[in-house]
Amino acid sequence: MYDLIIVGGGPAGSSAGRRAGIKGLHTLLIEKEVFPRYKACGGALSERALSYLDFPLPQSVREREIFGVRFRFKDSVIEGFHESRIATMVTRSILDDYLLEKGREAGIEIKVGENVIDCKEQGEFVEIITNKDVYRSKFVIIGEGSQGKMKRKVRSIDTKYEYGVCIVADVEEDIEKIDQVMSNIMEIHFDVLNMGYGWIFPHKNYYSVGIGAFAYKIINPKRIMNEFLKTKGFNGTFRLRGHTIPAGGITRNVVSPRVVLVGDAAGFVDPFAGEGIAYAIRSGQIAVEVIAENIRDTNHGAQLGQYESICQREFADDFKYALLSVKMMHRFPNFFFKILTGNQEVFEKFIQIPNLTRHYRSYLEWLIPRLPQYLFSLFASR
Fold first, then answer.
1. Sign of dihedral through CA atoms 319, 322, 326, 327?
2. Are residues 180 and 239 in the same domain?
3. pTM of the model
């Protein structure tokens, strides 16, 4: 009988495992893949994500530091740089392998290449059935990502209005050429498709190029992706990899009596930027804190509701404002970009969000009262 079984060895599961090991919980982590494995992702690690780690990320994992953002919409281009770092570029296969090893370092048991096929709550414990064995645990954390099936034990399947579809290609390039073109800046293209965006992120020796949008808005994503690559000067044949991501800001069940969902499985993703790694790390840590408290206090039975309230308070409530920002921007894209390109303060405060100095809520509370003034300025300048 384990104290805790963790399903999934990505950032959510490995972070939960590390925290569980540090707290002395008898923990088993089960991952269906053998690491390192490829993971489709833009690979931009935010300052928020780094701040949640209880150890420094080594230089061997860091590929490039980003200090600037370039937004493109039709003929409008605006870019800005921040004194402090906005993001760190990583390759997910390398990052995830390193994070899993940090979990192992904390003393937990890890089984890779083993697939969980069922999860059954049995009153005082949970039974985990894999393709190789059967295990029992007091509590279970499910962190197998957006495409795993075990999360359905806790919540319903997302509709096409509640998740996004992404297509990613890794385009190899010489380091020197990347340094010349976009050494420490990332590009976001908002004219590629509705309710989504395209991106070009510089890594060490390749570009991560991709598109993403809400599933109900994107038709034939491979065709759109190929057109985006060609338009941006990436000629050739590239392997396209697709994946889904949930949209944050939507109410979902994330706990049952003895099972907790973390990361993408819980829907903890910024719906504007599409970032999920930071919230995967933090939700995994919070889940263990709550479970550890439950194990210590055996008089009241399983009480996991606190996990939801802590996550809401720390980050999930702000997803509602991020989702509102997405809808506003794509409802009035021309107006949005005229304001961004016409007022440097609007842009500078916006890029403070990934830099940890501002939240979506505080940004909207600052921006909305000023919109009439900006709108008047736009018409007066014509």
1. positive
2. yes
3. 0.94
